[in-house]
Design brief:
Elements (H helix, E strand, L loop, with lengths): L2 H99 L2 E6 L14 E2 L2 E2 H12 L4 E6 L2 H9 L3 E4 L11 H11 L5 E5 L8 H12 L5 E8 L34 E12 H5 L8 E6 L13 H11 L8 E5 H4 L4 H6 L1 H12 L3 E7 L3 H5 L1 H8 L2 E5 L4 H10 L7 E4 L6 H6 L2 E4 L5 H6 L2 E2 L8 H12 L6
Parallel strand pairs: 1-4, 1-6, 4-5, 7-9, 10-11, 10-13, 11-12, 13-14, 14-15
Antiparallel strand pairs: 2-3, 6-8, 7-8
């Protein structure tokens, strides 16, 4: 091979070698770039992860801060709520303290003079003195610090005291026909400055119940009113009164005659029913019974009976027997056998009507205890016969049986309001006054009759026990104080 050819071959080999070298360099450069990109990508990935982690930490920290903030806020809310409750309890305690220190008195005005019916306020209505119905509701409401009757008459005084009231002897100046209720109440407050709230209860409202009195008083003691008075809803269309001799025409006062509503579509009007008027002493001093911050208390129509003018006496008796408040439910009846029966113990053991009355009471879970005198030898000899026939416990008592009865009541955990007593004569006077419900036969002496809370229509030996038992049972389901 010639030198030239070898030279050419060498150059060709050199070129090939140079190309290969260049390709290797390019490949190396490419690999280097790829590695750099991978490194950069890896670096970016790590950076993103670090950023993500940092962001996650930041979010977590924010959530933690938010949670902490919420927790603090909740704690503040709880603390605020606690403080609010504490303040309310403090206000309520303060209110209760003020309420406890305010003397609330019930006051019934009962003058002796009556143009219509003499001594109407103590005339028996369904066996109970008229004033007794209102006094019973006032006493049993248990919201009054004192219960008073303002009167100028000795007989009314005796009846009021028998029904648990204190008596204010009113002066002649406020006992005239022209004297207003406001003047009489103002005089009462002059003598009884400890009273802060007066509830003037009308003696002529025999269907008043303790529940209404309690609810009305809350409007003053809890809601802050100065005066509260009782009303009833009436559905009566009123017309203007005109002189028949004039040319004036009457016109409707509370309806449109052209669009006369049905009763059920008309709410009616609120009218005073006269049952009671609650007023603060401060308002009375200004010469008002209704005023200041004033509100009414609505009573049901059946309990809004006014003896002054609504109905006559026989009709009133029927209403009272149905809707009047009879007192708390009797759980035990003490019956003085010898006093209540003209023929004594023999009459009770042999008279079917009397024994039936006792059995009726027993069936209604009213225990009956028959009282006999230790000095009555005949009664003692028949005690076993009486116990067998009536199923009652027969108990001997002395001339002053109060201690004997108190012992019985203590064993049964009873109060006088849970007890009825039936007596007859002067020896029974104290027990007749103490018992929540008491009665005497129709022929009982005057002194005992005035002390009793119910006077039977029948006399001794003629069914007086039956009469009183019926009176107890007639009202027993209604007693809702």
């Amino acid at each position: 091979m010639s030198a030239k050819r070898r030279h050419d071959d060498n150059e060709a080999d050199g070129a090939v070698s140079s190309n290969k070298k260049q390709k290797r360099q390019e490949a190396a450069t490419s690999n280097m770039k790829q590695k750099k990109r991978q490194v950069a990508a890896t670096s970016n990935m790590k950076q993103k992860k670090r950023q993500a982690a940092a962001s996650s930490d930041m979010k977590q920290k924010k959530r933690h801060v938010a949670a902490t903030s919420n927790m603090k806020q909740k704690k503040r809310q709880v603390a605020a709520t606690s403080n609010m409750k504490q303040k309310k309890r403090h206000v309520a305690a303060t209110s209760n303290m003020k309420q406890k220190t305010r003397h609330v008195a019930a006051l019934i005005l009962a003058r002796g003079g009556s143009k219509g019916i003499p001594l109407k306020n103590i005339k028996p209505l369904a066996g109970v003195p008229l004033i007794g119905w209102a006094l019973r509701a006032a006493v049993d409401s248990e919201v009054f610090d004192s219960v008073w009757v303002s009167t100028d008459h000795a007989e009314i005084k005796k009846v009021a005291e028998a029904w648990g009231a204190q008596v204010h002897q009113r002066s002649p100046e406020v006992s005239r026909d022209s004297t207003s209720s406001l003047e009489t109440i103002q005089e009462f407050l002059e003598y009884h400055n400890e009273v802060d709230i007066v509830c003037n209860i009308q003696a002529t409202s025999p269907c008043l119940h303790p529940f209404d009195v309690r609810e009305a008083l809350k409007k003053i003691t809890e809601d802050g009113y100065d005066s509260v008075f009782s009303v009833v809803r009436r559905h009566q269309f009123r017309w203007k009164e005109v002189d028949e001799l004039s040319d004036e025409k009457t016109k409707a006062l509370n309806l449109d005659p052209a669009n006369r509503p049905r009763r059920q579509d008309w709410p009616g009007e609120l009218c005073e029913n006269g049952s009671f008027y609650f007023t603060t002493k401060d308002l009375i001093k200004t010469g008002q019974l209704q005023g200041g911050k004033s509100i009414y208390y609505e009573m049901l129509p059946e309990f809004s009976v006014d003896i002054d003018g609504d109905i006559d006496w026989p009709v009133a008796e029927q209403r009272v027997l149905r809707y009047g408040y009879p007192g708390k439910v009797v759980r035990l009846l003490f019956c003085n056998v010898s006093a209540c029966l003209a023929e004594g113990i023999n009459a009770l053991s042999s008279n079917t009507r009397n024994t039936s009355a006792i059995h009726m009471l027993q069936e209604k879970q009213v225990e009956v205890m028959l009282l006999t005198s230790r000095n009555n030898t005949v009664a003692q000899s028949l005690a076993d016969k009486l116990k067998k026939r009536t199923g009652c416990e027969v108990r001997e008592v002395g001339k002053k049986p109060l201690n004997d009865l108190l012992e019985v009541m203590k064993k049964r955990s009873l109060d006088w309001k849970d007890v009825a007593f039936m007596g007859f004569d002067q020896a029974d006077e104290k027990l007749l006054k103490l018992a929540g419900l008491s009665a005497v036969p129709g022929d009982a002496p005057e002194l005992a009759s005035k002390a009793a809370k119910y006077i039977c229509h029948l006399s001794r030996g003629s069914g007086a026990v039956w009469d009183f038992a019926e009176h107890i049972l007639l009202h027993k389901p209604m007693a809702k104080p």
